[in-house]
Amino acid sequence: MIRLQGIRKAFGKNEVLKGIDLTVDKGEVVAILGPSGSGKTTLLRCINYLEKPSDGEISIDEFAVNCRKPAKKDIHALRRKTAMVFQQYNLFRHKTALENVMEGLVVVKKLPKAEARQKSVELLEKVGLGDKLDAYPSQLSGGQQQRVGIARALALNPEVILFDEPTSALDPELVGEVLAVIRKIAKEGITMIIVTHEMSFAQEVANHIVFMEGGAVVEEGPPKTIFQSPKEERTRQFLARFTSDSAYSI
Amino acid sequence: MGAKFDIRYVFEYFVKLLPYIQISLFIVASSIVLGLVFGLLAAIPRLYRVPVLQRLSQVYASFFRGTPILIQLFLFYYGLPEVLKLIHIDVTRFPVLVFVILVYGLHSGAYVSEGIRAAVTAVDRGQVEAAYAVGMSGFKAFTRIVFPQALAIAVPILANLVIATLKDTSLAFTLGVMELTGKAQTLPTMSRHFIESYIALAAIYFIVSVVLERLFLLVERRMLKHERETGNADRVPLGKKWLKKRTNAGLALSKGGTRA
Fold it and tell me: Using one digit for the tens of pLDDT, what is the confidence trace for A167-201?
């Protein structure tokens, strides 16, 4: 179980997170929605300390980090318990697809090379890239790179995978293949927190929806409630644009 | 004035100068190795913004980049022994070559530190974030992810430096080192065919520079192989062969370090 309590973050005087509380149960898929600048990506990046929260507590099962005075080893432990899939994929550019997945296993988890290799091959096959093992990121399409990114995250066997707008940088025609992979692993009971703009995907895959705006959680609940009968006016407004999407389509 | 121009001397001196390439290359190689060490040591405080050391490294880089190497040679060769005498260290018996290599090493170190700094900064920030997210420590992220990529970016910078150093070694003769230029000055003292000697000398420098340039180009291609889009990754084995051909033909696109 992942628990965020009173997470605050300020860039100078600009407070982007105003005390966020969030609980994610094991195996749950949480989608964080909200307009740009609502702080959803910052919140996600606080969970593995790529962004340093100024206050609050992050806990994963029994392990807790006090964000006021985090020890270096706590931050490290937090990163080992989590994995992230980035908007810009951020694959290691000088390594092949296989090496990208193996890297964490060999360097961080200290697995023997042969074992790491076998596990990585399996994962790349799972995301449908069994034939691209030796390709460098520059030789892969965005969708393929992102699937390698997902395999790299899965390899670490984390308590939670953090998805930071995993399809925002993709050509529309490549979005499907990435979402299909995420959908597949969601069914396997891996805990996931997804920041996304893909509303229908969030509605379909997530068990829990969090709607954020202005650095605070406006409303949260099961997808059905949020999408069909949101309590807050602001949520309704935001989702209205999405639900009436078809009306705008050319 | 020298004797009447006689092209035969060019060939004669060319052959006679060839063995001295060794000394020049020895100076280049050892000072570049030394320069890499100094450069890395100087770059780290600036990359990590270590308070006092950062300043020192800046002073170091701007001194060696801001003064002519000839003056640096004189300062170190004539000045350093005097300074060290004050603390009772006698270096006056050290071979000249030690001073020469030290100065060239410090000189190239200044450029190396700038090069490393630029190359490391050119590596995408996302690479470090990904390394952290995977669970790596700062040290691991640097040595396994950032540094190898920065090195590939820095190869062209390093190539320039090596070639520049090779040409700079021609100044070592002012301290009496018998390298290429020194020899080329003394060879014609009897025959007075100076111009022929200089032509042979220029040819040798040129040839060595071109060979080095080519070698570095190969290294660069190799190190940046990951930045080459073959378009179709299925055909990597075939594509590699094809690319090799292109490389040999000197047609391959020079990707440089622009695609961090």
Answer: 999 998 899 999 999 999 999 989 999 999 889 88
Which of B127, B137, B259 is closest, CB to CB, to A90? B127
Which chain B residue shows the shortest CA-CA distance from A80?
Answer: B135
ipTM of the complex: 0.92
Report the gap between the CA of B38 and the closest CA in chain A (Å): 26
Nearest Cα to A1, choosing from A33, A23, A21, A29? A23
Give the model confidence (pLDDT) of B96-108 as tens digits: 999 999 999 999 9
Task: Select from A137, A143, A145 the least CA-distant residue to B229.
Answer: A137
**B166 and A139 Cβ atoms separated by less than 8 Å:** no
Q: Which residues pair with A216 in a beta bridge?
A: A213
Burial profile B97-122: b = 16 or more Cβ within 10 angstroms, e = fewer = bebbbbbbbbbbbbbbbbbbbebbee
In chain A, what is the straight-line distance between the N-terminal and C-terminal CA atoms, in Å? 43
3-class secondary-structure state, position B77 = helix
State whether residue A74 sits within 8 Å of chain B by CB: no
- Residue B217: name the closest of B259, B150, B162, B144 by CA: B162
Cβ-defined contact of A107 to B227 (cutoff 8 Å) = no
- What are A161's strand-pairing partners? A83, A192
C-alpha distances out from residue B226 to A152, B223, B231, B240, Å: 18, 7, 12, 11
Cα(B141)–Cα(B134) distance, rounded to whole angstroms?
10
Tell me the whole-structure pTM to 2 decimals. Answer: 0.79
